Amino acid sequence: MSTDRDTVRSYDLVAAEYAAEAAAMPEWVATEIDAFVTELGGSGRVLEIGSGGGRDALELEKRGISVRRTDVSKGFVELLRERGFEADLLDPLTDDLADPERPDKPYDGIWACACLIHIAREDFGTVLGRLADATRTGSRLHASVRDGDGEDVTIHGSAAAPRRYVETYWRESALRSALTDAGWIVSDVRRYIGRPDDPWLSVRASRA
Ligand SMILES: C[S@@+](CC[C@H](N)C(=O)[O-])C[C@H]1O[C@@H](n2cnc3c(N)ncnc32)[C@H](O)[C@@H]1O
């Protein structure tokens, strides 16, 4: 498979709107940030996948973590740059993940909140493996996906400017297997409810 370009274009169209809607930190994400920072010992260099409007990177930096902001959507990358942050256009499925600031040094962690939902099931293991390869032994991973079966396509916007998002749902056992196969040791998979009827699986893992 490959990256769904309709999904990426859809985020491009609404980057500023999405960033405003997602600006408030959800309680469950705050809990995961606390755990992630504690596991990192309050320092380290982290690759963020799907930074979106940059909410989580700001919080991680406040806690002493150095974050490389990236997104596959140029709408988000441009927005972050306009706001004074460095950000890179990066597709975790195909792009070189090495850190431009220190190309020979692997990351201490990966933060991928609510973004791997847009990776096709058949590409998921490849992405998880590439993330593992980009990090040092013992590095930490946060990744969150929607809990459920199958795939979903949602269409928003007007007929003249439709937006189409493709998402892949995961069940815990398959998610754990994909992570283990890709070189991650899963310490916890927590269940959270985003909005009503919007269940998430949130992974805490370390690199084997
Ligand atoms: C629901 S938003 C989450 C944004 C941010 N992490 C947050 O929690 O607010 C999904 C993010 O995934 C990114 N995305 C879309 N397709 C992707 C793909 N194939 N691989 C990685 N990220 C993708 C989007 O650009 C967007 O930043």
Automatic annotation (TrEMBL):
Pfam families: Methyltransf_25 (PF13649). GO terms for biological process: methylation. InterPro entries: Methyltransf_25 (IPR041698), SAM-dependent_MTases_sf (IPR029063). One of its GO terms (molecular function) is methyltransferase activity. Keywords: Methyltransferase, Transferase. Residues 46-138 form the Methyltransferase domain. PANTHER family: TRANS-ACONITATE 2-METHYLTRANSFERASE, TRANS-ACONITATE 2-METHYLTRANSFERASE-RELATED. This is SAM-dependent methyltransferase. It comes from Bradyrhizobium jicamae.
